[in-house]
UniProtKB/TrEMBL annotation:
<feature type="domain" description="FAD-binding FR-type">
    <location>
        <begin position="205"/>
        <end position="305"/>
    </location>
</feature>
<dbReference type="Pfam" id="PF00175">
    <property type="entry name" value="NAD_binding_1"/>
</dbReference>
<dbReference type="InterPro" id="IPR001433">
    <property type="entry name" value="OxRdtase_FAD/NAD-bd"/>
</dbReference>
<keyword id="KW-0285">Flavoprotein</keyword>
<dbReference type="InterPro" id="IPR017938">
    <property type="entry name" value="Riboflavin_synthase-like_b-brl"/>
</dbReference>
<dbReference type="Pfam" id="PF01794">
    <property type="entry name" value="Ferric_reduct"/>
</dbReference>
<feature type="transmembrane region" description="Helical">
    <location>
        <begin position="7"/>
        <end position="28"/>
    </location>
</feature>
<feature type="transmembrane region" description="Helical">
    <location>
        <begin position="150"/>
        <end position="168"/>
    </location>
</feature>
<keyword id="KW-0274">FAD</keyword>
<feature type="transmembrane region" description="Helical">
    <location>
        <begin position="75"/>
        <end position="96"/>
    </location>
</feature>
<keyword id="KW-1133">Transmembrane helix</keyword>
<protein>
    <submittedName>
        <fullName>Ferredoxin reductase family protein</fullName>
    </submittedName>
</protein>
<keyword id="KW-0408">Iron</keyword>
<keyword id="KW-0411">Iron-sulfur</keyword>
<dbReference type="InterPro" id="IPR039261">
    <property type="entry name" value="FNR_nucleotide-bd"/>
</dbReference>
<dbReference type="InterPro" id="IPR050415">
    <property type="entry name" value="MRET"/>
</dbReference>
<dbReference type="InterPro" id="IPR013130">
    <property type="entry name" value="Fe3_Rdtase_TM_dom"/>
</dbReference>
Length: 428
């Protein structure tokens, strides 16, 4: 909550600064041009904020979570698109109002005669393409790698937009303070991406030299991969977090998959457990010992860091048991573990959960059966955990199950700040 409030406060302070420098630069006589400049500055600020959200900075990620940051990044991206569309329309019609040109010829004339405008047009075209492929109807039809490759052109658009702002932005050039402010905004935004997305992952992988040390089938469609490396006790990973894993074989090096740690980090090895949900995860069963691994992370706010109560309820669904099993290993205080599966045969890692529960004095409930009727309905949750409103609830499982349980917890009156979950996804 503190990190989220701080992020909002920083954004609000920057909005105030932008409005101050905008008004200090003076207003044009044409109202449409004034609106065009204001929406352009708004789009520039949102674009910079968008970069910070997706920079994967450890301080923010541990406190807010990649899923929420990615979701905010997505909606900020659509806001950027609409702000820049308004900027283009207002500016074009504003200048057309002051000349004898129609809007189409006016934008052509600006692109040909005003430095930086053509770059802005290209940047806007790139942003439109990215906005289209990020819409849900298109996103569902694209492989993550394809979507990600197209999305990388965002950085081209950012550079073009920045040079456009330097060339023609009246607010940018109105004073040395305004110039310093905008250079600072873009420097922080691009620097955050450079450090969080490039420098930190490269540094950690060079330092730790991750390799596959063992491949252990857990069931007919679930496998655990053990990872070793150098100085793993210096890796700031916690139970409940996940990594983006790239296994550096000739046919898999370009694929990144988000898998949670299925055991609490012990300083000597990491373990992930994956279900064969697609071609990539199914191939893990045949991974060779000694394979080099490039791991980005750790990521996620699904950790004991956010506990508000001394006792907890851990609710897992299907392969969502992996971070729950790791959390049980790390948590202190009494815990109740509820493991929801379609059938007892689907309860992977159940033996480990039972051993951990016995060792830590936790209660373990295996709940199996079809989706209907809801076996985690409010009445059932109250029966299994009578004091559930006085506990932290950690929840991980398939999205439909999570949505249903979150609604049930709300109906039971469990405070929102006591409910912890994370939706594991690369692209929101």
């Amino acid at each position: 909550m503190v990190a989220r409030t701080g992020l909002y406060a920083v954004l609000a302070a920057n909005v105030a600064a932008v409005l101050y420098f905008f008004s200090a630069a003076g207003f044009a006589s044409n109202a449409l041009i004034v609106l065009g400049r204001l929406t352009g500055l708004t789009g520039a600020l949102l674009m910079a904020f968008q970069l910070v959200l997706v920079a994967r900075l450890p301080w923010l990620d541990r406190r807010i979570g990649m899923d929420r940051l990615t979701s905010w990044h997505r909606w900020t991206g659509f806001s950027v698109l609409w702000a820049l569309l308004a900027h283009a329309v207002f500016i074009t019609f504003g200048y057309a109002q002051s000349s004898s040109l129609d809007p189409v010829n006016q934008i052509i004339d600006l692109a040909e005669t005003v430095e930086g405008v053509l770059r802005a047009v290209v940047a806007f075209g790139i942003i439109i393409v990215i906005g289209v492929v990020s819409a849900r109807f298109a996103r569902r039809r694209l492989a993550y790698e394809t979507w990600h490759f197209i999305h990388l052109y965002t950085y081209v658009a950012v550079v073009l937009a920045f040079t456009h702002q330097v060339a023609v932005g009246t607010s940018f050039t109105s004073s040395s303070a305004a110039t310093a402010y905008w250079y600072g905004v873009w420097g922080v935004a691009l620097g955050s991406v450079f450090v969080g997305r490039l420098v930190l992952p490269l540094w950690r992988n060079w330092r730790h030299q991750f390799r596959v040390s063992a491949v252990v089938p857990e069931s007919h469609n679930v496998v655990s991969i053990y990872i070793t490396g150098r100085d793993l006790d210096k890796l700031p990973a916690r139970a409940g977090q996940f990594f983006l894993w790239r296994f550096l074989t000739k046919d898999r090096w370009w694929q990144a998959n988000p898998f949670s740690l299925s055991a609490a980090p012990d300083g000597t090895q990491l373990r992930l457990t994956a279900k064969a949900a697609g071609e990539g995860s199914a191939a893990l069963r045949h991974m060779k010992v000694g394979t080099r691994v490039f791991a980005e992370g750790p990521y996620g706010a699904f950790t004991a860091m956010h506990r508000t109560r001394p006792e907890a309820v851990l609710i897992a669904g299907g392969v969502g048991v992996t971070p729950i099993r790791a959390l049980l290993e790390e948590l202190h205080g009494h815990a109740v573990v509820i493991y929801r599966v379609a059938s007892d045969q689907d309860a992977v890692l159940y033996g480990e959960l039972a051993e951990l529960a016995q060792m830590k004095g936790a209660e373990l409930h295996l709940v199996s059966g079809p989706v209907v009727p809801d076996k985690l309905a409010p009445a059932e949750l109250s029966r299994l955990v009578p004091d559930i409103t006085d506990r932290d609830v950690f929840l991980c499982g398939p999205p439909p199950m999570m949505n249903a349980v979150i609604g049930n917890l709300r109906e039971l009156g469990v405070p929102k700040e006591q409910v912890h979950f994370e939706r594991f996804s690369l692209a929101g």
